[in-house]
Input
Amino acid sequence: MLSVEGLHVAFPGRRGGADARAVDGVDLDIRRGEIVALVGESGCGKTTLARSLLGLVRPVRGRVTFDGAPLAHSARALKAYRRRAQLVLQDPSGSLNPRHTVYDIVAEGLRIHGRPGDERTAVAEALSRAGLRPPERFFLRYPHELSGGQRQRVVIAGALVLRPELLVADEPVASLDASVRGEILALLLRLRTELGLAALVVTHDLGLAWNIADRVAVMYLGRIVETGAVEQVLTAPRHPYTRALLSVLPEAPGDPVVLTGEPPDPSNIPTGCRFHARCQVLADGTAERAGVADACRSREPAVLHGGGESQVACHWALAAPREVSPAGPAPR
Output
């Protein structure tokens, strides 16, 4: 349904310096009814990629294709596209107008897009699908009168009211209490089952990815470095970066992998593998013994294509036999 090909997004550098390459060559496909988790540490380009899928950030190169048609960035084309693809933001308090009632917040999309039909019925149906029942009880409430979980359900209802085919959810439960997180995740799974929704869920939480996603894409410094079925990637990770992310989970056996230094500046991406300066496999001599250390430092791995099969952008992982990571399975 959604296809990303060779996407590059850059932002002007500070004081006339080199551009920051926030998304630096990404291919990604999302099928109908599929949930894909995009994971990685802060600053890796996840949110920029998600926003570019909705036309909120214009790429400098590459293209986004939805239902076979390239995404155009004219106001008219984007308005039509956003009836079919909707964004769910991380902070419900920041994305809801405190002066508007729940009814007006959810009805706003209908009014902007002029969807035919009875407005009150559509709003009630969206709130009900989002788990706010009976919906009429919430019509005249304001955001400050709701709990955090209820506010996030209002955000989801506002996206659902247009009956979209794709949801892009940027850290949809990061600001919620642990007791509410499971309810929102269960809601997203139910919506996929009932409505056939596809979703891209942006998160730094590998446990969340394990619980909700069909497929996972691991992003580092503007590129996807590993992708595949969630069970395969999170139980037998091949990229050293994925292994490091999994090693710090509370349930992971063994000692956590502590990555040295900070992620490189996206305006000065290192030559070779962009992870090599922090790579534990290169640092402990494992890559040297496999005969790929020079390649790690000098040759950039190819961009992974957007298909669903297991892929990894790592010279050592491609040279080494597959094995189950000592990190073991992520918690379900």
Observations:
- The first strand starts at residue 2 and ends at 11.
- Residues 94-163 form one domain.
- Residues 324-332 have pLDDT under 50 and may be disordered.
- The chain is about 35% helix and 20% strand.
